[in-house]
Amino acid sequence: MVEVLEKSLASAGNDRAAAIMHDVQDYHISPTEAAKIANAAGVKLLVFYHLMPAPDAFLTRRLFAHGVNDVRKGNWAIAEDGSLYTLPLGSSEVQIGRVRY
Known about the structure:
The protein is of the alpha+beta class. The chain has a domain of 69 residues. Helix content is 44%, strand content 14%. It contains five helices and four strands, in the order H-H-H-E-H-H-E-E-E. It has a two-stranded parallel ribbon with strand order 1-2. Helix 1 runs antiparallel to helix 2. The longest helix has 12 residues. It is elongated and about 55 Å long.
């Protein structure tokens, strides 16, 4: 998604914003790359958070996650504002809840 934004901004003549979108790709990995790494590390649950741009609508969530299911069958999620993931000491359980405001 960020690559598409970069190209669109460059086409629109917004070179500064296009450069930022280019730079973002240098220090972030793609969702499918993260899924491959999680698989190799034996991660129980992969959670995507601190996302740029934030996929906060159905379509953007689908675009963001494109290809993840091909790499990782289940056991992944896109965090929402207020998501709380707890890893109790001495347990392999992952507790998923919400932060109370």
